[in-house]
Amino acid sequence: MLRAATCDSRSDWSANNFVKEDCYNSVLNVFLQDYRPNPKAKFNFYSGTLPPPPGSNMIQTPRRYTTKSCTLALVMLYKFGSAEVPGAQRRGHAVTELASFEEIYRTARRLEENCILGQGQTSRLAWEPVGATKSLGLFFWATDSIINRDKRFRGRVGGDYLANAPLIALDRDASID
Question: Rounded to an integer, what distance in angstroms lies between the CA atom of residue 138 and that of residue 25?
């Protein structure tokens, strides 16, 4: 069953305004940096605060894709307190997660369409769990927000992709298939 996107206007996620086009380019960063080179590969995502699990195709989190005012972040859900993520299940989350960048990219596009570009005149930031056990969170939040500055989600642990200028202009309706 497909989980509905959680759109939210939390002040600790939003801070100052974010620009919709910046979020679009953050999603485009996921496509260009990780999805296109590895469209169907499954990866084991894990927290950079833990030793890497044995095996191959390991990716450290947090992993952030930032374009000016908007950050798309991949964070292990166990890093959050029970009240920090609206609508999150109140259960223990795994410390690793198996997911593909195809799933991550498609989820990011859905959140972008439903929360950031949608909702009438009010854009809201969003999150959704991804992966086999839904223990990896995909988040959109403002780059200058409190949560983006939180030490749990800072640093180049998993690789931060920064784009200070728009990447390229693509037709939002273009198919990637």
Answer: 15
Rounded average pLDDT over 152-163: 53
Mean pLDDT of 25-40: 91
| pLDDT tens-digit series, residues 51-78 | 877 877 899 888 989 988 888 999 999 8
3 state DSSP class of 139: strand
* 124 token code pair: 């809201």
Angstrom distance (rounded) from CA 38 to CA 30: 11
Find how far residue 89's CA is from the centre of its chain: 18
b/e map of 10-23 (b: 16 or more CB within 10 Å)? beebbbeebeebbb
Query: In whole angstroms, what is the distance from residue 83 CA to residue 77 CA?
Result: 12
* Section 123-128 average pLDDT: 79
pLDDT band with cut points at 50, 70 and 90 for residue 120: low
CA distances from 10 to 30, 84, 147 (A): 24, 10, 10
Which has the closest alpha carbon to 6: 77, 97, 102?
77
Beta bridge partners of 74: 63, 138
Backbone angles phi, psi at 114, to 5 degrees: -80, -35
Strand, helix or coil for residue 142: strand
